[in-house]
Amino acid sequence: DGGSDLNWILNYVEIYNGLQLDAGTQTSPCEGGFNRLTPITTYGTTLYGWDSSLGLDSRDRGAPDNLRRDFVFGSPARTLRISLPNGKYYVYVIIGDISYSQGTMNIASEGTTVIQNLTTPKGVFKHIALTTIVSDGELDITFSRIGGASPYWLINCIIVISIP
């Protein structure tokens, strides 16, 4: 961009290969570049979705932004299934509610509990990062509650990125 040196340097390139899901209601704004995930998005009708919609609901608080304003929640444990090629993946999850504290919840990936006793105070959003290996063509992420201030687990968004 001007100057006496006509050369430029590129230090890093990341090629994104993954899936971004914005969890919320049927009508709340969906973050650009994200796919909508609602309580009625069931696996089998799309390449991603819940094992069952029974006991799931959603809310839209209207703030603070498109990713964190809304969420899917439930009381019974539910598994989010995503069709993916076998391989290693980064999984990022945002969890929180601007209006209420969230009770204790667990997250399991491919049948193994990877996050235990997660709580979020009112207005706090936790960013969870983990790695997982898919060996059966399907990533399974299970959300469950184990008590605390709220009888529900919730999810604002999930991003899955393949690791070369």
Break the fold down into its secondary structure elements and pairings:
Elements: E1 18-23, E2 35-37, E3 48-50, E4 56-60, E5 70-74, E6 78-83, E7 87-96, E8 102-109, E9 112-120, E10 125-134, E11 138-147, E12 153-155, E13 157-163
Parallel strand pairs: 1-2
Antiparallel strand pairs: 1-13, 3-6, 4-5, 5-12, 6-11, 7-10, 7-13, 8-9, 8-11
Structural overview:
This protein is mainly beta and 164 residues long. Helices cover 0% and strands 52% of the residues. The chain has no helices and 13 strands. It has strands at 18-23, 35-37, 48-50, 56-60, 70-74, 78-83, 87-96, 102-109, 112-120, 125-134, 138-147, 153-155, 157-163. The strands form 3 sheets. Strands 2-1-13-7-10 form a 5-stranded mixed beta sheet, with no helix packed on it. A 5-stranded antiparallel beta sheet has the order 3-6-11-8-9, with no helix packed on it. Strand 8 and strand 9 form a beta hairpin. The protein is globular. The two termini are 32 Å apart.
